[in-house]
Write a structure and sequence with these properties.
This protein is mostly helical. It has 2 domains: 60 residues; 220 residues, MetI-like (MetI-like fold), CATH 1.10.3720.10. The chain is 74% helix and 0% strand. The chain has 14 helices and no strands. The protein is flat, with a radius of gyration of 29 Å. About 2% of the residues have low confidence.
């Protein structure tokens, strides 16, 4: 009986002893996790600051004159602030900023619309339609992303010149309506993640392929469509080489090319040029702030599906 009474006490004591040994281990694990989280946040903060410094320098340079821009030591805040640089940039002779802004919106908006429409149609075909050679054709389409754009420049230029389209926006906007391999891949992956029963039920009810694509399947991929539109808009907004080659009239220039022309004529007006560059980035910031929720959800869902 004495052994029976002592044995539970011994086992209980050993259990408490093992629990006491495990507690420091758990504490060390929690400390390591907390230190790892702190290190990650510090690293992300450092990267964010490094990326924001050029943007901050552009903004404060827009409030300086030329002597302050190149002053040594660096002036991290203008004294005094030249707020009139923005109004001067908007009304500077020979620099129709508002005209360039409208051209950029027209150019980027048309390219985004054509890219989303054509890429969604092709992505739906690769994901939901069955035909011989589908996978081979999709592989060829995706492999075109490996071809540098500069390789296609000369034949494209010769083609558009033979068609008499130089000096217009047709060479810049027209190819967008033929699809983009990256967005075709993106939308195809999401179309494949949609339930097949949805399309089967629509076909049973008598819906054709076009109605099935336009009224049923396309609304299901609204978030990825917005992601494709925003990315295409941003990439086109910064496009410089294409407008430089195909556009002849100064009044057709988008902002990217207009700022270059402004710099070429007024090499010493750095404050005005930085003011114009700051104004040119404001539409992109507004678009990102208004569509951030759709961008995050679209990229997340596209990464999870199919």
């Amino acid at each position: 009986m004495r052994r029976r009474q002592i044995t539970p006490q011994c086992h209980g004591g050993a259990g408490h002893f093992r629990a006491d040994l495990r507690r420091p281990r758990h504490r060390r694990l929690h400390v390591h996790r907390d230190l790892g989280a702190v290190a990650q946040h510090v690293l992300l903060l450092a990267v964010a600051v490094a990326l924001l410094v050029p943007f901050y320098w552009m903004i404060i340079s827009a409030l300086k004159d030329t002597s302050q821009v190149f002053a040594r030591p660096l002036q991290w805040w203008p004294t005094p602030a030249r707020w009139d640089n923005f109004t001067r940039a908007l009304s500077y002779p020979g620099f129709p900023f508002l005209r360039f802004l409208w051209n950029s919106f027209f150019y980027a908006g048309a390219v985004s619309f054509g890219t989303v429409l054509s890429s969604a149609a092709v992505g739906y075909g690769f994901a939901c339609l069955r035909f011989r050679g589908r996978e081979l054709l999709f592989g060829v389409t995706v492999s075109t992303m490996l071809i540098p754009a500069i390789v296609l420049f000369i034949p494209s230029f010769v083609l558009f010149k033979s068609l008499g389209l130089l000096g217009t926006y047709a060479p810049l906007i027209g190819p967008a309506f033929l699809g983009n391999a990256f967005f075709i891949f993106l939308l195809r992956q999401f179309f494949r993640g949609l339930p097949r029963e949805l399309a089967d039920a629509a076909r049973i009810d008598g819906a054709g392929e076009f109605r099935l694509f336009w009224q049923i399947m396309l609304p299901q991929v609204r978030a990825p469509l917005i992601v494709a539109a925003i990315l295409s808009f941003v990439w086109t907004w910064h496009e410089f080489f294409g407008p430089l080659i195909y556009l002849m009239d100064r009044h057709q220039y988008p902002l990217s090319l207009g700022l270059f022309a402004f710099r070429g004529q007024h090499t010493t007006e750095w404050g005005l040029m930085m003011a114009a560059a700051t104004l040119a980035t404001l539409p992109l910031i507004a678009v990102f702030c208004l569509t951030q929720r759709y961008i995050v959800s679209g990229i997340t869902l596209t990464g999870i599906k199919g």
